[in-house]
Amino acid sequence: MDEIKKGDLFSIAGLENVKISIGDIVEEEGGNKDWEPMGPHPMPSISTLRDWDFKLLNRYKPFYAPLCDMCCLCTYGKCDLTGNKKGACGIRMDAQQGRIVLLACLVGCSAHCAHGRHLLHDMIKKFGRDVPIDFGPEVDVEAPLTRLICGIKPRTIGDFEQVFDYIEEQLVQLADAVHTGQEGSYMDFESKALHMGMLDSLSKEASDIIQIACYGMPTSHEGGGPNVPLVDVGIGTIDTDKPVVLVIGHNVPPAANIGDYLTDNDLEDNVELAGICCTSIDTARVYKKAKIAAALGRQLRVIRAGIADVVVIDEQCIRADIVELSQRVHSPVIATNDKAMHGLVNRTDDDPDEIVADLVNERVPGVIILDPEQVGEVAVKTALQMDKKRRKLRFILSDDEFKQYVNECTQCGNCTLACPNGMRIGEAMSRAASGDVKPLADLFDLCVGCGRCEQVCKKQMPIVDVITKAAYPQLREEKGRMRIGRGPIWDSEIREVGAPIVLGTIPGVIAPIGCGNYPQGTKDAWLIVKEFAERNYIVTLTGCMAIDAALWKDEEGKSLYEQHHGRFDGGGVLNIGSCVSNAHIHDAAIKIASIFAGRKLRGNYEEIADYILSRVGACGVAWGAMSQKAASIATGFNRLGIPAVVGPHSTKYRRAFLGRADLKDDWKIIDATDGSEIYCEPGPQHLLVACETVEEALPMIAKMCFRPSDTDRGRSVKLTHYIDLSLKYLNTYPKDWHLFVRSATDLPIAKKTELMKILEDKHEWKIDWKTKRILEGPIRGYDPSFNPTNLKRLVRERK
Amino acid sequence: MVTEIPFDVANIPGPETGEVVAPEVIGSYISSAKRPLLVVGSEILRDGFFVEIAIELGKKGIPIAATGHSIKGFVEKGYSENVQYYNLHDLTNCLRDPNWKGLDGKGNYDFVIFFGITYYYASQMLSCIKNFATDPLIRAVSIDRYYHPNARMGFANITPRQEEEYKAMLNRVVGSIKRR
After folding, report:
1. Which helix (H) or strand (E) holds A717?
2. Topology of the domain covering B19-176
3. I need a labelling partner for A485 at 20 to 30 A (CA). Which of A168, A177, A563, A733 fits?
4. Does A729 sit within 8 Å of B128, measured CB to CB?
């Protein structure tokens, strides 16, 4: 008999009325049986990991800060829930907040999942299902989250079809829970949000693996990992003397096709391919001449600056007014994704030259081309022709226009009330009118680029353009450098650093990720990376924060990526890649559990999350989190036992996960060696916490790296940085540093005597000064054999 | 000069929104508290005057939770009597727990005064207090230059040109508080 393949259709002799269609070939016993026995929770459903969630939620209780006191989701309402009142359906304010958080995570996870499914469709169409997952000699554990959650070891991109089948089924079930008359407990809403976060992380991993495999993005093959090249970042790096194609979004196939077209037609040196947001990061992974114009926060301003001769959008984080904005500067738009069509006409499969003619003659503001393989030709031809037409146009305000506008400002304050950062724009306008442009120029970086100020200006002033004009000289010099996204952390790197991370001598893995809704501008992103890289933490960046951190340089003109190595090792500054690439940060933590500690991965999420929470000093930092994706990303980190520190705007997500250091019983941890329960220090104290300023965040991030498993040497290193950062940025010792001291050997060596004196005088600990030992005081003593877990089932059976 | 529009204009929470009142009214209201707590944020560092106002309130026996990196201002002025650093999220989480022991170990507070905190962060924490610190009730007021709808009472929005007037208002608040 011939080999049966998916899609085959055949009849059986004697059963003429029966036809059998092969939907899928289940290869469990062939492809997946040998690598590891199946764990307890493959493809968990909503309730499977609920016990784990409740363990987290009882220690890190959901904290709610409603952004709106009402519920408007059904026709009973609006219901006033102020003061935790119940609405007409019976839901209380706390559960309603959990519901909204679940909704945010649903939207965020859907974006990642739908992107991944879309990408998979396109890649299978272009390359077939059998593209191998081969990340080179240094990566054997190719898909840790997929192995962990689904129990699948993917061998080709086609294997991810069942992964997306699973995610999509769960997404629908979780979406159902948001409906009126379903879930009513805030704890269960949060358990579902955590489930959603986990699915989000899985979606991201699948998406990045698919694009890495299909496009040959960096892995551990030659030139990958720490050795990836640098890419230009910043508006000033774009050569506007050439035609410019500007790509925006998160789905790389159309941009990759543009790069291919430029290469195939020998146009690489004649046309600039630049991008904004994650598409730009991924474009740089596939096209070596790509440039990164800016992160999300500067989208409006880059478009308004008229840099683009054509704008190509794919999906996510695209401004809803992109067509209107682009039209204003005569930049035609090509929409390439059915999730973001912006009212344009679908011209897929039309003659490319006809489409180009319509765009160049501005008969239409833009078109839709849904086949990524057709985008390159149209985009490049359009850019080449538009460049000639647009060359004589001017988009930055003239000096006279600028003067006229700043003099027109009445300082009514409407713009300040509309501004997310409350920028005092009128005051700066007034100073500019008096000849001092600096205060207005300084607003450029503080501005999050939303344009709400212009919506309320009584003078209809183009405030964003006025600020851009003031900052233009600096903007032209905005020329940063970053490593292109390296993708997976190598197994060999994990072998090198697994022990130092778990023992604490590499004090932590810091992961600055996410959008650009910063409270005080992009320089904070740079400062966070700088502080921790210089202190020998491993700093792994993704997305817009990876871009923003690259904009700033030291006195020698070097960016942090140029100053620091790119290995997953102490002092490294790694650009992992786009938003979807931050799954590799989860993966690194998971691989520490599997490769370093020998824990089984397959269908074993709860045990691995417990391991990470107790032992892996990792902390996410989403300083400018803005989108619903950021909500689901952070929640995914949290379920895996990784805390996150966020900026002040993130309090508008409504929910945090906060531990209480003062409640002793919340910090009982089991010693897996003998099953005894030990009162521990609060490490990590929170799973999700906001700081007001970067000065506050820096010591907080260091604090979030304490883990019960730290050795005394590791604890000493972590305490050193926690105390030092607090002294540097808060001018005082942390009020709780003593909670993390278990013995005198935990104390930073350089300050040992001074700290012991404080312990004795302020905290009334008993010290034996002859032996320099602590006799009484700590929550617990240091026990090198302590084997922390939150799961009773992991207590070793006594023989 | 003033309006009742939230400082972030779309930040309209619902049916219950705070009153705009004169400084003396806030001072009198604070005087009625049994256990008040002053919560200050990093914006007090923009001018030494605001740190001095906080210290004056501290000297009236109102303990101070210094959030953000505002503790720097107190350290620089050598004031340490009843002030300590607290993360604002962490602090608000404690405030909603009636059994919290407070900064001094003597129990939770019945009144909080927000001062010098980044607007939107303060607004969210005031929202938490309004919605969840209800039994027993914690009263929350703002003496910031922003109108805060989630506070029970506070000032209207104050423009940069009204800075001196605002400073005078703060002095009037301090002057009208009758405590030890």
Report:
1. helix A712-730
2. Rossmann fold (3.40.50)
3. A168
4. no
